[in-house]
Predict the 3D structure of the following.
Amino acid sequence: MMPMQTLEEIKKRLESAVPGVCVEIVSNDSPCQQRSLLVDRDHGPQVAAWLRRDDALRLDYLSNVTGVDWPEVVTKQKIKVKRKVDGVEKEVEEVVQTRSGGYLEAVYHLYSMELKQGAVVIRMRTGDRDQQNKLPSLTPIWRSAELQEREIYDLFGIVFEGHPDLRRILMWDGFEAHPMRRDYVEPDDYEYEPTPHDSVLAKAKAHYPPEVAP
Amino acid sequence: MKTTVVEPPVPSGAPVGLPAGDGRFSLLPKTSFDGRVETELLEVAMGPHHPSTHGVFRMDVVLDGETIVKLKPVFGYLHRNHEKIAENVSYLASIPYTDRLDYLCSMTNNWAYALSVEKLAGLEPPERAEYIRVIMAELTRLANHVCLIGFLAQDMGALGTPLMYGFREREKILDLFEALSGSRMMCNYMRFGGCRLDLPPGWVREARVVVDNFPKFLEEFDNLLSGNEILMARTQGVGVLTAELAVNAGITGPMLRASGVNYDIRKVDRYGIYDRFEFRVPLGDHGDVYDRYMIRLLEMWESLKILRQALDDIPEGPVMDPNAKIRNFKPKPGECYERIEGPKGELGFYLVSDGGANPYRYRVRPPSLVNLTVLEDMCLGHNVADAVAILGSVDIVLGEVDR
Amino acid sequence: MLGEGIIKGMAETARNFIGSYSDPERLVTVQYPEEHIPAKQNARNFPFLVFDVEDPVAGLRCVACKICEKECPPQCIYIVMDRDDKGKPCKHPKVFDIDVSVCMSCQICVEVCPFDAIKMDTEFELSETNRYGGLLLTKDRLSKSNEYYHKIHSVEAAEVDARLADEKAKAEEKVKAKLAAAATAKAAAQAAKPVAG
């Protein structure tokens, strides 16, 4: 069996096969070295269809689909800059703010059952976490994404355009928030059972009706 | 079971001439052009508390007479957001939670998670631990498959007998688990970097007795069920899943192999030390319920082969990687997806670390959930009673579907 | 022949039925309330606290470090450290509660405890009529002697005892060595003094 193509080769061939696509290799510093391809969301379905069709890859099996929430993180860093102050060049400390994150991400793990190779990891990012939370659905290409994309919609709030049946799957229909987001705050209005932790009890007591309140 | 009758049956000799406009209730017999009485579709909610759904699971079925024309699985009743819990506790503290995913196979759940963390942090379990893991995984496979076949037969009306025989054999395996880990079902045994405890003295001997007696039981099971005409009539040609659809829908495990696709992660990824054992992958031909039953029976024979080799070859030595830490375990930032061949299919864990003590993202790829994707495709055109058998052959555990 | 499979299956059932009275292979259950299966060496149910000498209060091995409280996956342990009259913390729990209606018997607390103070019990007949208070095990109900620990997990307890004795001996040796080193240093300093003076 031929060894699988490297991610660089795949990227190169992908860029010639799908015109206008923007692909980036996302590095991974952990010992397992599983890198991934970041695909721009407009060309997602075309890239997916090509990956599935391509003779050297034949990624016919979509194993895992998941979402990752990256809230916006502002990191402040002090750097020394040379600048002219009153005509004299001085070294001045400046605070530089770098913003990272601020989007939701869908990660797809692809394997080939035909050629018994894998994994190729592709990911797509939304514009932001509120209004532009749309991504193209890959369910028309791999049906195994059907329930898993529904789950991401339910728990992360990514809207998959082109999904045949996008409804909540684990939470109930009237539920409003998306619990797997990092900034989700659990409501404290359901019933708590007494535990040794007093704070939990106090939280529950606030919601007892006055005639029941102990 | 809740039934919604869209239109009541028309009593004979009903008064003719009442207005029937809103479509909700009409006494006028509707007739099609050839004079037959036109029937309406019936919507039935099978579950959530139905003995055949293996937990709290609902199938919203639309019936035309007795034939299924539409089926939507509804679940989430057991949802506790396992992934969120795991993101708020340390890497070690999620291991007991993984036991509760697929509560019939806690050992394989532990292994999948441990494998993922090991890859993320670059740990290497010692050889003895690898052997113990293989032994545990194959024993789990036996315990799961005997249960599943028992449940499947139970769903189709073989009340008790095959299930109790299966449970009797499972009991012996659970005793082995208890002797090793202290608990029968929630084993919480494997750790990243190895296993929690070494095998107690005499354990290998006991395990060998169980493994040596198992073929007798499998033959019994074979005699009891495989040739049974009722079972064959109920399962053959029912719930056929084509290989093409199975691959596209991400079906894994015995269900995929029953459709004739040769894909076993033990052979493909060769995780752990599976490359050292000689075993074969049974494949089905028709992809129907009977094939799925048969594949599981055959897989148990192969598991016994692996178990015999592993119990013979198991070396002495440590069971934990000395580099693995229990407290203050903080892997480097990065991500990792690792999968194993669980008894129900591909069980994978996707972990993202940000360098902290808790995983940044923790995701379980549940085989039961993904295998439910094609439930509707398999059930269309069959009777309600067949849907029960088809669901039984999918082998779901709601602890894993709902997480 | 149609029905052959059914007859074959019936024969199997009959064999099992007769066997269930005699064959030990087919007898795996016991009549529970009258008979008990002896607990396995590694069996675990809910945690308990080990105390060493006769006194269940002063002999408690727990030093209220709260590692188990932090690591407990379902957060069922609740510890308050004891303080003396001046408000200085003493290495002793004032409150040590385990809510066994929440506890999932996972043994993580045992694993993370650096002092071998918390171990798993094998007692499982714990039914209570009071759902909330009855299942909240307090310190006095959790404290059990080392002898009891030896009784339920003999192998493990012997290992723990040997390890603790070893650690104690090492610590004593360390103290001794420290004292000896201090003495020699003092002697050396004294010996060096006249020269410096």
